[in-house]
Amino acid sequence: MTGPDGQVTPGPGARIIPLMPGVARPTGDRRDMLRDAVIQVVGHLVIAKVPAEQRSPLFDQAAELLDEAGWGLDELYAAASDGPERGALFQALGLET
Asked: Higher-confidence residue: 53 or 20?
C-alpha cells in the first residue's frame, strides 16, 4: 500500500519484523572459533598487541562484536583471564555455550 506521501506502508494485518544492525552470531564450530577470536582481541586490547600475521581469521569480526558490547577496558581486563567475567562477556556477546 502507498501512503499519502508516496511511501510504502504495510497493509492491514501485516507483520513488521524490525531489522537490527550488528554482527551475526555463528553456531557450531564457527562459534568456538569466534569465542577464541574474542579472547585474542581482548588480550590484544589489554595485555599485549597481537601481530597481524598471528591474528585469527575472525579477529576483525570479534573486534566489531566487542565494540557492539560497549565494555570498558577495565571490564575487558577482568575478562582476559578465564573466570566468571569471561563467562559474562560471552553471555553479553551471545556466545555462551
From this structure: 53
Q: How far apart are CA 34 and CA 61, in angstroms?
A: 8
Distance, in Å, from the CA atom of 76 to the CA atom of 94, rounded to the nearest integer, reads 16
Structural contact between residues 38 and 93, judged by C-beta atoms closer than 8 angstroms: yes
Q: Which amino acid is located at 62 in the chain?
A: A
Residues 34-77 pLDDT 10s: 999 999 999 999 999 999 999 999 999 999 989 988 899 999 99
How many structural domains does the chain have?
1
Residue 45 lies in a domain: yes
The three cell numbers locating residue 7: 511511501
62 is a domain residue: yes
**How many other CB atoms are found less than 10 A from the CB of residue 59?**
18
Q: Which domain holds residue 39?
A: 28-93
